[in-house]
Each structure stands twice: as C-alpha cells, then as structure tokens.
From TrEMBL:
Gene3D superfamilies: Tetratricopeptide repeat domain. PANTHER family: OS01G0970900 PROTEIN. It comes from Stylosanthes scabra. This is Pentatricopeptide repeat-containing protein. InterPro entries: BIR6-like (IPR044578), TPR-like_helical_dom_sf (IPR011990).
Length: 114
C-alpha cells in the first residue's frame, strides 16, 4: 500500500496537508490497521509533519475499534504531543475525552471548560 501511495502522490505532484490526512483517517473508521499504516506513511513524506488535528483524527478513528485499543500506543501518542509541544485546545481535550471514553461516535459536542 505504502509504495503505491508514494508513487501516486509523486506522479500527480500531490502534497499532503493535515486536513487531507485527517479526512482520510476519519474515513477509515472500519479499518484501524489501514489507518495506522496511513498515519505512519504520511509522517514519512517530505514536507509533511503531523498536526494536532491529524493525531486527534487517528485517536478518534482507533477508538471506534475495541480491537485496536492499545493503551501503550495511546500513551506514546500523548508523549509525542508533549515532545511536539502541541497546545491542547478545549476542542482537542473534548475530542480526547470522548475517544478515551469510547464515545467518539457520540454526536453531542459538549465543550470542556479549561
């Protein structure tokens, strides 16, 4: 998959954006393994670096599948937040709480007061 994506992007001069990566990850809710592979592939592309939004999209996508919930993986992602010095907005905290609570599919959007 990865080599095909790289070839396709190079052939059509596609440059990844955080919005594109986030949208793609959210479209893979029934395919957690593919979402994780895409996330890692995207991170290796030239001139691309994951944003807070793309990390949150991956966490949300993986939270839909109980088989993909790995607390060590999530701890590593939170450590990356810290290393990259991402500033967590109230919307980001809300998204994380919903994902960790297993309610990412919930359509309610209660804002956290931080």
């Amino acid at each position: 998959m990865e080599s095909n994506l790289t070839s396709f992007c190079n052939k059509f001069l596609i440059t990844l954006s955080s919005n594109f990566v986030s949208h793609t990850l959210r479209s893979l809710t029934n395919q957690p393994h593919t979402a994780t592979r895409f996330f890692h592939w995207a991170n290796q592309q030239p001139n691309y670096s994951h944003s807070l939004h793309s990390y949150l999209s991956l966490i949300e996508t993986l939270s839909f599948s109980s088989s993909s919930f790995d607390s060590t993986f999530f701890q590593n992602i939170l450590e990356e937040f810290k290393c990259r010095k991402f500033r967590l907005t109230s919307a980001a905290v809300n998204s994380l709480l919903r994902s960790f609570a297993g309610e990412s599919h919930c359509c309610c959007n209660v804002q956290a007061n931080i």
